């Protein structure tokens, strides 16, 4: 049986009113018997019955389900239905259910005008109009944007299921409008359309300057066109003009940072006129990102009575969104909620929120009903009932979890419950911070789209969720901001009031994020959209380089460096111990290399060669400046070694030495990381790829500070901003800059997907049409199960370490894909080399040369022997007289005693080897 499903247009299911000038269609196929697609056919119709087909590809062999772009002329405000027929290599075929996409107004001019209430702009309004319908309605759409934020209702019923529209964008560059199907909300007779408006990011207190915040606009504004098509074929357009009216809202105040005040007793029957607002209609564009929705609902874990006598709700999970409650308070009574992330000494705490009030005030009208805010959001686990009437019933409260409407695509489980919780923490931080833009944190007076945070997490994000459209919109904003800055990328996007020049690792988001999206989704349109931006960032760096003498190094500028790393003595130094010019130059070379690859894909041959050469010139300058003739790296930090290896700055002949120096550096810290924002994402990946997979697992599973599992042992349910955001005694370490929901260090999950599970995209077949499977188990985890719904289908990689030290693998390869499987430690098993796997399920069990058990033996690498004092004593007692010099770790490296015996460098009989084995097997791994 074959099934065609998960149809998407521009990576969105049934998008309405998005930018769809060139639709990119994608779908998935599952089959019980077929392994490959031999042909496919795509049909697009003007009707759901496919009686009016406007495009038919015919049966073709070159149609790719990852991204197919039909050549079709699209009309404004039109719904198109499409379906796919697929033929398999076994003769089977299947046709999908119909999917659809609906175009926006496209280039159609607006009849509507921007309007604003003609009263005090600090007063929250409701803007409305009445209109009459006398005929049967066939179809009705509303094309809307309200500033700062808005909620639309028709005849008293909320329109749509998204919130905080139109979201956060560079409002001074472009303004997105949304499209709603309101057909079912209309009735014959008088209809009323209402728009509740709030401050939001556009008009409220927001940005890095908290005292005098920058505002995109100082007054509320609305634009709306309602297009109605009747059953008789006639049509009407209702649109905003000065005939519309306004009244004062029950929302007394609202703000992203401070919360909301809602007075349900407020009643002002006065009707006020509106006037034309001074806003440019030409800035309006169709939306690009999925809407913010209530994605989950969670009930409180418990009600706490604190030592200070406070009543606090514990949601059991640090979440982002609202607390909805059932109002039972008498008329005029005030309910006040305050939101926080952690407790201190068992009491409610919120000092780390800085100036953000994070409150919700509600004045009751005396009616029993569900109440929630409208124009704010909170990052919280704990809610203090500062003012409350009557009994506190847990059933009256529900956490409404808000984030962008993104499909979940990845999952990881292991035998280690702490690692499982770490994965969930990273996932929850992604949920909480993927609220229309990838923010740094969702709770304090910041919540901004920091480019460095987004860049380091973008790969992990693409495994966890389908983020193609989400990042496509973020990168579109980045490109708009960059245009006004001569190629410079601001450290925050949208930039709002941030004037600061781009820094290495932050500005490189312009290059790294689109490249990651291309690798994961195989859709070249992201490179087409962002190529000028990618190129512009590297050109900007080169202009700074040229101005400083053209040494092909990036010198002198401000950088955040290895932000919040632990390799500096001064705890107040947040910039890390790795030289900034070294890091900046490394990213200079790395980004130039990516631009070269993107240019080659886009058939820009001259650019490809130019940026390849530039990347090599920078790389050579780095080698000349920072490496000795024997390969010693002058910058002696964990991050420096990691970056050198990951970004291919090290000549082949020196890589073993640099990898050894990284191991030595980690040994100095008893195998604890000292890396920050720039080194951490690549740390475990480099270790696994350069012969130190054991150290990568050790770093993952360390439960003390600093490490990924330390916060988990402290009860964290999201990723922290700092390795020690909370100290072992339960105290918050720094109130000035300390978020308990900050996804950057959650980038470790990319290592779990890529290296531990071994699921890796490849550059010459992006989107996982072909991919590499190279799992790297280690006994510190006994089992791992990774599932990933790639753009080509579901990939499963599982392994289990058995009691006898053998290892078992299970892989699932999707329909019409090929995997290059490389199994670990296969010497002598007959499974060596690369295995080409096509669609299907595969299992392998074998005993590696060195069993995956927690033990030492004569086949243990000497490097590991030297890391354990007892093991070293045993080996030295046997070998010091005859070959002590060979035990020097740098010389021995990954070679074991048995390797030396095989090479003829040690003369030891089998009986002695077994005696050493027996003694080593009793040593406990430290």
Automatic annotation (TrEMBL):
Q: Does the keyword Hydrolase apply?
A: yes
Per UniProt, which keywords does this protein have?
A: Glycosidase, Hydrolase
The UniProt record lists the Bacterial alpha-L-rhamnosidase N-terminal domain at: 136-296
User: Would you say which domain of life the source belongs to?
Assistant: Bacteria
**Where in this chain does the record put each Alpha-L-rhamnosidase six-hairpin glycosidase domain?**
407-755
Q: Locate the Alpha-L-rhamnosidase C-terminal domain: which residues?
A: 758-837
EC number, UniProt record: 3.2.1.40
Span of domain Alpha-L-rhamnosidase concanavalin-like = 305-403
* Xref: Pfam families: Bac_rhamnosid (PF05592), Bac_rhamnosid6H (PF17389), Bac_rhamnosid_C (PF17390), Bac_rhamnosid_N (PF08531), Ig_Rha78A_N (PF25788)
Q: What's an example of a GO molecular-function annotation for this chain?
A: alpha-L-rhamnosidase activity
Q: Which reaction does it catalyse?
A: Hydrolysis of terminal non-reducing alpha-L-rhamnose residues in alpha-L-rhamnosides
GO biological process annotations for this chain's record? carbohydrate metabolic process
Q: What PANTHER family does the annotation carry?
A: ALPHA-RHAMNOSIDASE (EUROFUNG), ALPHA-RHAMNOSIDASE (EUROFUNG)-RELATED
Protein name, per record: alpha-L-rhamnosidase
Q: Which organism is it from?
A: Thermoclostridium stercorarium (strain ATCC 35414 / DSM 8532 / NCIMB 11754)
Its gene is ramA
């Amino acid at each position: 049986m074959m099934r065609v499903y998960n149809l998407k247009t521009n990576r969105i299911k049934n998008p309405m009113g998005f930018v769809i000038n060139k639709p990119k269609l994608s779908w998935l196929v599952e089959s019980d018997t077929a392994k490959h697609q031999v042909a496919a056919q795509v049909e697009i119709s003007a009707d759901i019955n496919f009686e009016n087909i406007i495009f038919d590809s015919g049966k073709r062999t070159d149609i790719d389900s990852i991204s197919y772009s039909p050549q079709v002329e699209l009309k404004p405000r039109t719904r198109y239905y499409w379906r796919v027929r697929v033929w398999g290599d076994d003769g089977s075929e299947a046709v999908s259910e119909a999917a659809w996409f609906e175009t926006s107004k496209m280039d159609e001019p607006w009849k509507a005008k921007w309007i604003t209430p003609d009263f005090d702009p600090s007063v929250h309004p409701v803007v409305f109009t009445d209109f009459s319908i006398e005929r049967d309605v066939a179809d009705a759409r509303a094309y809307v944007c309200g500033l700062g934020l808005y909620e639309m209702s028709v005849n008293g019923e909320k329109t749509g299921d998204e919130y905080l529209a139109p979201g956060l964008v560079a409002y001074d560059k472009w303004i997105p409008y949304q499209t709603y199907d309101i057909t079912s909300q209309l009735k014959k007779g008088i209809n009323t359309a209402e728009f509740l408006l709030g401050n939001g990011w556009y008009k409220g207190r927001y940005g890095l300057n908290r005292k005098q915040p920058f505002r995109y606009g100082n007054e509320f504004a609305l634009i709306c066109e309602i297009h109605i098509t009747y059953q008789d074929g006639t049509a009407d357009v209702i649109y905003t003009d000065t005939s519309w009216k306004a009244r004062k809202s029950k929302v007394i105040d609202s703000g992203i940072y401070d919360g909301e005040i809602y007075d349900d007793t407020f009643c002002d029957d006065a009707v006020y006129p509106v006037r034309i607002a001074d806003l440019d209609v030409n800035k309006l564009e169709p939306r690009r990102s999925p809407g913010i929705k209530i994605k989950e609902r969670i009930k409180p874990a418990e009600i706490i009575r604190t030592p200070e006598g406070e009543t606090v709700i514990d949601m059991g999970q640090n979440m982002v969104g609202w607390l909805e409650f059932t109002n039972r308070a008498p008329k005029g009574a005030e309910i006040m909620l305050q939101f926080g992330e952690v407790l201190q000494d068992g009491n409610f705490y919120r000092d780390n929120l800085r100036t953000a009030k994070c409150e919700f005030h509600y004045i009751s009208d005396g009616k029993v009903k569900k109440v929630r805010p409208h124009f704010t959001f909170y990052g919280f686990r704990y809610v203090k009932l500062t003012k409350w009437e009557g009994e506190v019933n847990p059933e009256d409260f529900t956490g409404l979890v808000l984030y962008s409407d993104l499909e979940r695509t990845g999952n990881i489980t292991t035998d280690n419950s702490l690692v499982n919780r770490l994965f969930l923490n990273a996932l929850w931080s992604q949920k909480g911070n993927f609220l229309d833009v990838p923010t740094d944190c969702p709770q304090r007076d910041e919540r901004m789209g920091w480019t460095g945070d987004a860049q380091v997490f973008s790969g992990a994000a693409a495994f966890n969720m389908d983020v193609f459209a989400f990042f496509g919109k973020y990168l579109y904003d980045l490109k708009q901001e960059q245009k006004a800055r001569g190629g410079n990328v601001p450290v925050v996007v949208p930039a709002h009031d941030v004037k600061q020049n781009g820094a290495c690792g932050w500005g490189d988001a312009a290059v790294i994020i689109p490249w990651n999206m291309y690798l994961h989704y195989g859709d070249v349109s992201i490179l087409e959209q962002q190529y000028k931006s990618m190129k512009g960032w590297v050109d900007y760096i080169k202009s700074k380089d040229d101005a400083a003498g053209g040494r092909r190094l990036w010198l002198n500028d401000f950088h955040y460096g290895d932000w919040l790393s632990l390799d500096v003595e001064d705890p107040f130094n947040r910039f890390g111990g790795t030289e900034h010019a070294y890091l900046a130059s490394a990213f200079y070379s790395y980004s130039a290399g990516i631009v070269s690859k993107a240019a080659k894909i886009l058939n820009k041959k001259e650019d490809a060669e130019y940026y390849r050469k530039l990347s090599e010139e920078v790389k050579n300058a780095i080698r000349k400046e920072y490496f000795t003739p024997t390969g010693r790296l002058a910058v002696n930090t964990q991050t420096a070694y990691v970056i050198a290896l990951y970004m291919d700055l090290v000549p082949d002949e020196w890589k073993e030495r640099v990898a050894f120096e990284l191991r030595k550096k980690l040994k100095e810290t008893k195998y604890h990381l000292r890396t920050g924002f720039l080194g951490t994402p690549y740390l475990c990946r480099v270790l696994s790829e350069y012969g130190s997979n054991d150290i990568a697992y050790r770093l993952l599973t360390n439960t003390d500070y600093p490490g990924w599992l330390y916060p988990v042992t402290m009860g964290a349910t999201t990723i922290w901003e700092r390795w020690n955001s909370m100290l072992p005694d339960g105290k918050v370490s720094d109130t000035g800059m300390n978020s308990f929901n900050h996804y950057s260090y959650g980038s470790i999950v990319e290592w779990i997907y890529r290296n531990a599970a071994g699921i890796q995209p490849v550059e010459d077949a992006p989107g996982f049409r072909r991919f590499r499977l190279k799992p790297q188990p280690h006994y510190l985890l006994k089992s791992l199960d990774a599932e990933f719904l790639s753009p080509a289908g579901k990939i499963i990689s599982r392994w289990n370490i058995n009691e006898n030290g053998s290892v078992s693998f299970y892989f699932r390869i999707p329909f019409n894909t090929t995997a290059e499987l490389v199994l670990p430690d296969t010497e002598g098993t007959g499974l060596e080399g690369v295995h080409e796997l096509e669609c299907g399920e595969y299992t392998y069990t074998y005993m590696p040369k060195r069993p995956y058990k927690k033990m030492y033996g004569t086949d243990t690498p000497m490097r590991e022997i030297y890391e354990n004092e007892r093991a070293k004593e045993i080996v030295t007692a046997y070998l010091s007289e005859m070959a002590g010099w060979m035990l020097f770790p740098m010389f021995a490296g990954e070679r074991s005693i048995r390797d030396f015996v095989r090479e003829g460098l040690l003369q030891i009989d089998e009986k002695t080897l077994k005696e050493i084995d027996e003694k080593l097997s009793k040593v406990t791994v430290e």
